[in-house]
Design goal:
By secondary structure, this protein is α+β, with helices and mostly antiparallel strands. It has two domains: 2-149, OB fold (Dihydrolipoamide Acetyltransferase, E2P), CATH 2.40.50; 206-425, Chloramphenicol acetyltransferase-like domain (Chloramphenicol Acetyltransferase), CATH 3.30.559. It is 28% helix and 24% strand. It has ten helices and 21 strands. It is elongated. The protein starts with a strand and ends with a helix.
């Protein structure tokens, strides 16, 4: 008996999906609930499991095909077996069992998706040495790309080089700029040989959706950006003093994001226009702060939401953000977790950005951009001193937010961060 492999029901905001990869080939044995197909939507990757034990009898939609909810992707023949010893065919003869790979190679191949296998072959990698983050340790394309970026590709041995001085986490940069070829390889792109090589690849659905929303934001909003700078010394001193106790008490590290989220939610209470959105000819004021945290992943930028962030303790904020970061890399953040949001915070400083103008995440009315912490000379009480400074940028929709409110909102965040006791005292 054959059982259909179907596309699951897609969320309301998603109309279709693309077949990203099959983990098995036609004729392979499968086990119930084993992931067979990865479907890519414009927000997340969905995994489709095997409906029963048996053999993958038929693949109806290959990689790259566009499918909708309840589409039959293929069929599993229940109870059938593949491989093994020689078996009798219907004419009474013998059919030779296929020769199986042995050892680590067979195990690694069995847990590697087609897209990942292709990338492994292109770079001459050993699949057994790559750590998989998919279900049951399956190797995803993103895992291979991280392996390549870590410099683990097979290369001739080189003499060890003198270690460079350790840089702060926020400002870590390579000692020298990589060549164009190295950059392309790190991004998983290989070029044909020639004097002027090129390679044309289709956008992923997520990248296409990001492009669409960014263009929409620049065309449909009256977007402006205001800037300020904050002296991070008080926050850094407080963090250094209590980080060990904080980690022991809450089983999570104390980072900077919890300070910024807490300061932002307090400022949003004071300036409700910045926590509002436009719906047609109406302005919708939100009595809660659902703060989106921009997270970079190998597939692109995703923005999961901290629901009711104004009620969250700093430890809960840190735990949730770290959870988002890990699941974003594995493509495990659900569409529901990225839907909604009244305000967004993005941190380009982790990549070394000194200043930038973030783009609004519609239909929100504003987005806060954090940047690199850098020591600079500043004037304090008539004297020049060196302080760890960070530029802040607030991009806002001038249709709903006045310039005065945007400036005062950013000043409120600055004041709260430069005197963090005010976050605790609510003053």
């Amino acid at each position: 008996m054959s059982t259909d492999i179907t596309v699951p029901q897609l969320p309301e905001s998603v109309s279709d999906a693309t077949v990203a990869s099959w983990t098995k080939k036609k004729g392979d044995s499968v086990k119930r609930d084993e992931v067979l197909v990865e479907l890519e939507t414009d927000k997340v990757v969905l995994e489709v499991p095997a409906p029963a034990d048996g053999v993958l009898e038929e693949i109806l939609h290959d990689e790259g095909a566009t499918v909708t909810a309840d589409t039959v992707l293929g069929r599993v023949s229940e109870g059938a077996a593949s491989g093994g010893d020689d078996t009798d065919d219907k004419d009474g003869g013998k059919t030779k069992a296929p020769v199986e790979e042995s050892g680590d190679d067979a195990a690694a191949d069995a847990r590697t998706g087609p897209a990942a296998r292709k990338l492994i072959a292109e770079h001459g990698l050993d699949a057994a040495s790559i750590e998989g983050t998919g279900k049951d340790g399956r190797i995803l394309k993103e895992d291979v790309q991280r392996h390549i970026e870590a410099g683990s590709a097979a290369k001739p041995a080189e003499a060890p080089k003198e270690a460079a001085p350790q840089q702060p986490a926020q400002s870590a940069q390579p000692a020298s700029a990589p060549s164009a070829d190295e950059t392309a390889k790190q991004a998983g792109v290989s070029y044909s040989q020639g004097d002027r090589p090129e390679k044309r690849v289709p956008m992923t659905r997520l990248r296409a959706r990001i492009a669409e929303r960014l263009v929409q934001a620049t065309q449909q909003t009256a977007m402006l950006t205001t800037f300020n700078e904050v002296n991070m010394k008080p926050v850094m001193d407080l963090r250094a003093k209590y980080k060990d106790q904080f980690e022991k008490a809450h089983d999570t590290k104390l980072g900077f994001m919890s300070f910024f989220v807490t300061a932002a939610t307090e400022a949003l209470k004071r300036f409700p226009d910045i926590n509002a959105s436009i719906d047609g000819s109406d302005v919708v004021y939100h009595g809660y702060c659902d703060v989106g945290i921009a997270v970079s992943s190998d597939r692109g930028l995703v923005v999961p939401i901290l629901r009711d962030a104004e009620t969250m303790a700093m430890a809960d904020i840190e735990k949730q953000i770290r959870d988002f970061g890990g699941r974003a890399q594995a493509g495990k953040i659900s569409i529901e977790e990225m839907t909604g949001g009244t305000f967004t915070i993005t941190n380009g400083g982790v990549f070394g950005s000194l200043v930038s103008t973030p783009i609004i995440n519609m239909p929100q009315s504003a987005i806060l951009g954090m940047h690199k912490i850098q020591e600079r000379p500043v004037a304090e009480n008539g004297e020049v001193v060196i302080r760890p400074m960070m530029y802040l940028a607030l991009s806002y929709d001038h249709r709903i937010v006045d310039g005065k409110d945007s400036v005062q909102f950013l000043v409120a965040i600055k004041e709260l961060l430069e005197d963090p006791a005010r976050l605790i005292l609510d003053v």
